[in-house]
Amino acid sequence: MLLLLKLCLVPTLIWLITLAAKKWGPGVAGALAGFPVITGSILLILSLEQTPAFVREASLAASLGTSANLVFGIAYSWAALRWRWLPCLLLGLAAYALAVALGHWAQPSGWQSAVAGLLFLPLAGRLFPAPPVARDQPPRNAGMAPRMLAGAALALIITSLSARLGPSLSGLLAVFPVLGSVLAVFSHLSAGPAATIKLLRGMVRGFYAFVAFCIALAAALNAWPAPAAFSAALALAISVQMLMMWLGRRHH
Fold this sequence. Notes:
Layout: H1 2-34, H2 38-49, H3 52-80, H4 85-106, H5 110-127, H6 144-173, H7 178-191, H8 193-220, H9 226-250
Helix pairs in contact: 1-2, 1-6, 1-8, 2-3, 2-6, 3-4, 3-5, 3-6, 3-7, 3-8, 5-8, 6-7, 7-8, 8-9
């Protein structure tokens, strides 16, 4: 049963969020990709296998992991101004790995990780390049299966290795840019660098909801059982996401 959950939950969520993203364009797609879909699913699976204390620390570490995810997007975006998708992907993943290594080496406490992740968000939005002036084309209807397979593989690997990795590294790696990298490559191939940069920059808005989810989950797990804690964290994340989407519309 648990194996089935690992293999089905994350791909299903990726499928649903991809369908929604196709309707509203790259900026909204980025915001949706930043929402705690994959990581929330991984933390939910961890809650079925590990103690509440483990999940709490992993959740707080995941808050810092958002910074590494955004570092991937920033590196990919700058590279996209010059190169095709493969060098951009490799540079983005190298930047992500470096950010994870630095975060793990620094060994911040759980709540220090959460504060650092939150403070990086307004800075990250300023580090993306401006999209080049280009006529973006709508993405082609392809690439769903690789996204779903990648999400299933990540959930299976991270949750299976969580006992060895420990809560801090599990939380950092739970924010691996699965959805962001697949969407970025797909967008780059089908719609060009401008749409890709808009998508990756849009993830900053989604990560406010992500960090809110992680902090709320960590706080709620101190007092409530896991189902109630996840429900409260998800409700807060949805509220923050709606607020950020509304603010984004007002500024455009």
